[in-house]
TrEMBL record:
Organism of derivation: Roseateles koreensis
CDD domains per the UniProt record, alphabetical: TM_PBP1_transp_TpRbsC_like
Stated name of the protein: ABC transporter permease
Keyword tags: Cell membrane, Membrane, Transmembrane, Transmembrane helix
InterPro entries assigned to the protein according to its UniProt record, in alphabetical order: ABC_transp_permease (IPR001851)
Subcellular localization(s) per the UniProt record: Cell membrane
Residue stretches spanning the membrane: 6-26, 33-55, 61-84, 91-110, 141-158, 188-207, 213-232, 239-258, 270-290
Bilayer topology: Multi-pass membrane protein
Domain of life: Bacteria
Pfam families cross-referenced by the UniProt entry: BPD_transp_2
Length: 305
């Protein structure tokens, strides 16, 4: 029972960083912009967050630094693809490669460094409930913030006027422009907001999830988050469910190793990525379902007349 409690708690922790990045990418794609640079954004934010936490001792400042770096890099990407109309896919891949190399260069100084003792968090009263308490109510505050963010984003997209405008920009930017909405500025704001969430996810990795800096430590999580938006059919609450599933698969490898399961560690490490491929193949087999849920102008440039 104790091992299962630990597995659930670890799955929530791992799912949080995927959910944060996926929610950010969902905002981008709801506005009609595909950002393949999440991996690079998260890497740069991870080193920025770790460096800030190392020098200041403040996790809050570290998260703010990660969000700022993510927003700025995403803003640069937005200027390239929204105003200069460069190819979104090529620019996103370039951002991912840039982030990988830049973070490795900047992070050389911090490779052997460690952060101070980490705080333990718990929800008073609820954390003492047998089984459920240790599994659900002894998480970092960012875990609960992510759940609240997903709920707020769902309300924003489907119940608020600005959210409806954002969705309109992703569905038909020409119609939104004809109604007088500043399509390019809305898209840039969405891209920067999404970049900030990817940055928060990256900082969470280096400050909380694995409180250290190692080159390439995001290890494909940005790509899994990108796949998660499709898996969730661009719905914020489904992102939470999908992130929990992927978090569980990620942590399952360590659980199985701890239980003495005789499987090659390399195979166990492949599980999250095999699950990602399997889910994408399953969803892609129903093209009509994808078209019905995908923003109609996703990945398409907009040229105002």
């Amino acid at each position: 029972m104790e091992s299962m409690v630990l597995l659930i708690a670890a799955s929530l922790n791992a799912g949080t960083l995927l959910a944060l990045a996926a929610l950010g990418l969902l905002i981008n794609e709801r506005a009609g912009v595909v950002n393949l640079g999440a991996e690079g954004l998260m890497l740069v934010a991870a080193v920025a967050g770790f460096a800030t936490a190392f020098h200041t001792g403040s996790d809050s400042l570290a998260f703010a630094a990660g969000m700022l770096v993510g927003a700025l890099l995403a803003g640069l990407f937005g200027l390239l693809v929204i105003w200069l109309n460069t190819n979104q896919y090529a620019a996103g891949l370039a951002l991912s490669l840039f982030g990988s190399g830049f973070s490795a260069f900047v992070g050389l100084r911090y490779t052997q460094e460690k952060l101070g003792p980490r705080m333990n968090f718990s929800v008073p009263g609820l954390s003492d409930i047998p089984v459920i308490g240790p599994a659900l109510f002894r998480q970092h505050p960012v875990v609960y913030l992510t759940v609240a963010l997903a709920v707020a984003l769902a309300w924003f997209l489907y119940r608020s006027r600005p959210g409806l405008i954002l969705r309109a920009v992703g569905e038909s930017p020409e119609s939104a422009h004809a109604l007088g909405y500043p399509v390019r500025r809305i898209r840039l704001a969405a891209v920067m907001a999404g970049g900030a969430l990817c940055g928060l996810a990256g900082a969470y990795v280096s400050v909380v999830y694995t409180p250290l800096w190692v080159e390439g430590m995001i290890a494909g999580k940005g790509w899994i988050a990108l796949a998660l938006t499709t898996f969730a059919t661009w719905r914020p609450l489904r992102v939470l469910a999908g992130a929990g599933l992927f978090g569980f698969v990620t942590m399952l490898q360590f659980h199985l190793q701890g239980q003495g399961v005789q499987l090659a560690s390399q195979f166990l490490s492949m599980l999250p990525y095999l699950a990602t491929i399997g889910v994408l193949v399953l969803i892609s087999s129903n093209a009509a379902f994808i078209r019905a849920n995908m923003p109609a102008s996703l990945g398409k440039p907009f040229f105002p007349g």
